[in-house]
Each structure stands twice: as structure tokens, then as C-alpha cells.
Amino acid sequence: MTIRDQRGSATAEVAILAPALVLMLLLVLAAGRVPRARLEVYGAAAEAARAASVRQEPGPAAGDARAVADAALAARGVTCRDRSVDVDTGALSPGGSVSVTVACTVDLSDLGLLGLPATRRVAAEGFEVVDTHRSE
Predict the structure, then answer these.
(1) Helix, strand, coil fractions of the chain, as percent rounded to 5
(2) Can you tell me whether residue 89 is helix, strand or coil?
(3) b/e for 115-135, b at 16 or more Cβ within 10 A?
């Protein structure tokens, strides 16, 4: 087989491999987006619980937790199609605890070629013990 007989074979190989490579790239993006979002949501929940634990009243504690969770997700570049922050301040007293659950619906619609669902909901809970030496 001479070089003249192989003319155009590289073009054919690229045409066959290009779609497979694009699908592989999309799969890598999908495989990284959800775990990254899960880690960032966990970090936001932990920060929000810490912010709530330093307040003395349930109302301001819940407000601070929501604001901190929103700011933490925004700072980390996490875009949620739908986001919820649930704050449990039932034991907000010295030695008690605060828990914050942050849930985020991650948009995967731009990876639609893979046949994945358009969204994936990730959630995490942050838990913080209220300082026993703080004054009421």
C-alpha cells in the first residue's frame, strides 16, 4: 500500500472519532459538575450553620444562615436552578446546636446529548454546636 492509496484516510478517521471525543468530553463535564456542586453545597451548609450558631435569637440566626449560604454558593460559582436553605434553630442556646440543610438543583441541560436528566438535586446538612460559654 502506497502513500497515494492512503490519501483521505486521516480525514475519515477524524470524522469517525470526533463525535466519540465530544461525547467523552461531555461525560467528563457531567461527572465533575455534580460532585463539585455537592462539595460546594456541603461547604455552604457548614458556613451557614456556623453563622447561625453565633446569634442569640432564632429569627436573626435563620436570616444569617440563609444569607451566608447564598453568598457562599455565589462566591464558589455554583448556579442553582432552585435553591433552598432550611434552618433548625430549635436548640439555639448555649450547649445546644443548630443545623442547616442546603439543597441545590444543578442544571445539566447543556449536557443533553448524553441523555442525562436536565437537573440533579444535591443537598447537604451543616451542624454546629452553640458555644457553651456565650452569654444569653
Answers:
(1) 55, 25, 20
(2) strand
(3) eeeeebbbebbbebebeeeee
Q: Name the DSSP letter for residue 35.
A: H
The three three-digit cell numbers of residue 85, written as one number: 436553605
Query: What does pTM read for this prediction?
Result: 0.72
pLDDT truncated to tens, each residue of the chain (136 aa)? Answer: 555 556 666 777 777 888 778 777 777 766 677 788 889 999 999 999 999 988 888 888 999 999 999 999 999 888 888 889 999 988 888 888 899 999 999 877 766 655 666 778 889 999 998 887 765 5
Give the separation between CA 12 and CA 24, rounded to whole angstroms: 19
The C-alpha atoms of residue 99 and residue 87 are separated, in whole angstroms, by 6
Consecutive H or E run containing 107: strand 97-107
Going 71 to 76 to 79 to 85, the CA torsion angle's sign is negative
Helix (H, G, I), strand (E, B) or coil at 135: coil
Residue 117 belongs to what H/E stretch? Answer: none
Q: What is the DSSP letter of 38?
A: H
What are the residues facing 123 on neighbouring strands?
A: 103
